């Protein structure tokens, strides 16, 4: 195991204090030791408007889970980001017939939102259910997701801008994982900036080593993955 990523993670933990994601730290160590492919998204896009949601539904996927901040909204905002993000979210809702939800590490999380008021506010603003859960991403159980969507977790898509939380969560449970670029990095806490730097470093290293994303039962090959991106990059 390389010392440098561990040193950077230790710095993040010290600066993060009580806000540090303990589950994320534990899973991070598992990635370094053996589960490197957990870190790798199946597909990368500029924003959710670039995703061909209809093609995903036709391939057998039944629903989608979105991270919130910097995936479908600007950080701490309550409305979908305008333009391609908002349009992509609408098309996703149509393709999956409303089988869409938000999974946040704050809203709906028992530790920070025990009465669900923050989750309810997001639901009113976005018109999308917010999953109630007891564990922070990348931790979590497939049962709670399967019960909400009434399908196997392998039939779900996980979309988020963070490798060590969103992508690892989805890959651990067996979902198809899609990573858009963050909507904006302005005003991010220093711990988030450091975490992104660590994620990028590990991602580059694993790609150089030839590590591939996890195989998925609904995906035949890489060309099929590319069919899930809209020609022209969406609007």
From TrEMBL:
InterPro entries, per database record: HAD-like_sf, HAD-SF_hydro_IIIA, HAD_sf, PGP_Pase, PGPP1/Gep4
Annotated protein name in UniProt: Phosphatidylglycerophosphatase
Pfam family, one: PGP_phosphatase
An MF annotation (GO) of this entry: phosphatidylglycerophosphatase activity
Sections of the chain in a coiled coil: none
């Amino acid at each position: 195991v390389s010392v440098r990523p561990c040193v950077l993670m230790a710095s993040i933990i010290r600066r993060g204090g009580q806000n540090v994601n303990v589950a994320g730290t534990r899973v991070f160590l598992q990635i370094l030791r053996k589960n490197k492919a957990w870190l790798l998204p199946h597909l990368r896009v500029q924003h959710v408007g670039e995703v061909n949601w209809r093609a995903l539904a036709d391939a057998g996927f039944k629903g989608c889970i979105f991270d919130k901040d910097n995936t479908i909204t600007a950080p701490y905002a309550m409305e979908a980001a305008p333009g391609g993000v908002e349009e992509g979210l609408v098309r996703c809702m149509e393709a999956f017939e409303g089988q869409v939800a938000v999974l946040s590490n704050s809203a709906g999380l028992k530790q920070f939102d025990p009465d669900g008021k923050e989750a309810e506010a997001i639901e009113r603003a976005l018109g999308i259910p917010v999953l109630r859960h007891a564990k922070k991403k990348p931790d979590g159980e497939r049962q709670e997701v399967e019960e909400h969507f009434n399908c196997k977790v392998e039939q779900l898509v996980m979309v988020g801008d963070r490798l060590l939380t969103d992508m690892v969560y989805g890959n651990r449970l067996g979902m198809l994982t899609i990573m858009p670029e963050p909507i904006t990095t302005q005003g991010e806490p220093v711990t988030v900036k450091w975490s992104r730097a660590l994620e990028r470093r590990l991602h580059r290293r694993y790609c150089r080593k030839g590590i591939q994303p996890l195989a998925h039962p609904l995906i035949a090959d890489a060309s099929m993955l590319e069919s899930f991106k809209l020609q022209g990059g969406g609007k």
